[in-house]
Amino acid sequence: MSPTLSAWIDGVGFLAPGLPDWSVAQAVLRGEFPYVAAASLLPAPAVLPPAERRRASRVVKLTLAVGLEAAAAAGADPAQLATVFTASGADGHNCHALCEQLAGDDRQISPTRFHNSVHNAPAGYWGIATGSMAPTQVLCAFDGSFGAGLLDALGQVVADQQTTLLIAYDSEYPPPLFATRPLPDVAAVALLLSPRAGEGSLARITVGPTGDTPQSLADPALEGLRLALPALRALPLLQNLARRDSGSVVLEFLAPLHLEVAVEPC
């Protein structure tokens, strides 16, 4: 793989249908328990002030949950972390509500709906919740969004020598938009990436371009999740982390270019 970018993974956050956090997801990815489908459970964002907590959308609750989980696992201060937020599309429920409002006679959009409609809303709420003044990037690359976010975060880790939190997430759309973009639920992955190994580092990853086919998962249920939610294109990498397997996986990016990720557990 050349050229390549390398970093250490210090913490992981995870939330998906039937998998409420990284601890549960690890056990399922290791094959200790079968995957059981269930609706995603979104914890209340206790870190937000009451007013913002009431306004928080599903994607805000989602991204705060996984980002804080990854930071806590690494013992990192969220306020000091550069962040990269990446998603395949919009906040589905807010997008639906705006379209519904604009299709009616009263086309006055509420300020809350409007400020939640922008693609960087989760990054803004992260700043409010954590008090962070660190740099943040917000990306969208459709089904290649996890790969795009991973490259952006690794670029910051390597070029700026700064620990960077990657948060990749997806939101479902209600009907009728669901017929065009049938994402089944919300899901998110957070990786805390560091330029150097620490006492609690989980693995070193080295990422480079490849034309090889993206890796699938042997478990049909988990493979269905990987295909259904673009943020979960990360699952082959996460399975290696959960199993502490060394080796390489190929993750989807922007065809015909994909990403080969070499994993070396610590």
If you had to describe this structure to a student in words, what would you say it looks like?
The protein has 266 residues and is α+β, with helices and mostly antiparallel strands. The protein has one domain: 3-Layer(aba) Sandwich (Peroxisomal Thiolase, Chain A, domain 1). Helix content is 35%, strand content 23%. The protein is built from nine helices and eight strands.
Features:
266 residues; alpha+beta; Peroxisomal Thiolase, Chain A, domain 1; eight-stranded mixed sheet; 9 helices
Secondary-structure map:
Blueprint: E1 5-15, H1 22-29, H2 50-55, H3 58-74, E2 82-87, H4 92-102, H5 111-117, H6 121-130, E3 136-139, H7 145-160, E4 164-170, E5 187-194, E6 203-210, H8 220-228, H9 235-243, E7 247-254, E8 257-265
Parallel strand pairs: 2-3, 2-4
Antiparallel strand pairs: 1-5, 1-6, 4-5, 6-8, 7-8
Helix pairs in contact: 1-9, 3-6, 4-5
CATH fold category name: Peroxisomal Thiolase, Chain A, domain 1
- CATH-derived architecture: 3-Layer(aba) Sandwich
Please report the total strand number as a whole number.
8
User: What is the strand arrangement across the widest sheet?
Assistant: 3-2-4-5-1-6-8-7
Overall SS class: alpha+beta
**Which runs of at least 5 residues are low in confidence (pLDDT < 50)?**
none
Residue fraction in strands = 15-25%
- State the helix count: 9
Kindly state the mean pLDDT as a whole number?
Answer: 94
Helix-strand string: EHHHEHHHEHEEEHHEE
N-to-C CA distance? 21 Å
Q: Describe the global form.
A: globular
User: Class, according to the CATH hierarchy?
Assistant: Alpha Beta
Number of domains: 1
The major pleated sheet works out as: 8 strands, mixed
